[in-house]
Amino acid sequence: VTTNGPESPEKATLPFKLANAGLALDLDVVLALQGPAVYLAMPGMIPHVPDTNTSSLKQMLEVFVESGGRLLVCIPCMEERNLKATDLIEQAIPTSGSALTEEILSAKAILTY
C-alpha cells in the first residue's frame, strides 16, 4: 500500500522496486495506490515523475504489470480527486475499501509506504 504520489518521486518508486523483487521470486504481488498515489495510475503522470538513480517509474510499472502484478487504485481516493476509471492506465483496477480490506486480510505480508 502506498500513499506517495508524484510529489515524492523516491518514495513513490520504492513500492514498485520491492514489488518487482517479489514478482521475480514468483510471489503474488498486489500494489494498492491510495491518497495522492492514485495519480501514479494516470497515463500522463508517470513521465512527470523524475527518475531515480536506478530506473524510471515508467520502466518499473511496465515490469510490474508484465510480470503479473495487480495494481489496485482506491475508488474513494479517485473520487476525492475527481478521477474516473477512464482517467487511469488500462492495467489499473479501481478498488473499493471493502475489496482492499479483503486483499489485506488474505495477504501473508503487508508493507505500507
Describe the structure.
It is a single chain. The protein is globular. The mean pLDDT is 92. The protein has a single domain, classed as 3-Layer(aba) Sandwich (Hypothetical Protein Ychn, Chain: A). Helix 3 links the parallel strand 2 and strand 3 (92-95). 33% of the residues are buried. It has 4 helices and 3 strands. The chain starts with 8 loop residues before the first helix and ends in a 7-residue tail after the last helix. The protein is an alpha/beta fold and 113 residues long. It has a 3-stranded parallel beta sheet.
Rg (C-alpha, Å) = 13 Å
Morphology: globular
By DSSP, the count of extended strands is 3
Assigned CATH class: Alpha Beta
SSE run: HEHEHEH
CATH architecture: 3-Layer(aba) Sandwich
Report strand order across the widest sheet.
Answer: 1-2-3
Count structural domains. 1
Name the poorly predicted regions. Answer: none
Fraction of helical residues: 25-40%
CATH topology: Hypothetical Protein Ychn, Chain: A
Number of helices: 4
The profile of the biggest β sheet is: 3 strands, parallel
Determine the structural class based on helices, strands and strand pairing.
alpha/beta
Name the descriptors.
single chain; 113 residues; alpha/beta; Hypothetical Protein Ychn, Chain: A; 4 helices; 37% helix
Summarize the structure.
The protein is an alpha/beta fold and 113 residues long. It is 37% helix and 12% strand.
Topology:
Elements: H1 9-24, E1 30-33, H2 57-66, E2 70-74, H3 75-80, E3 92-95, H4 97-106
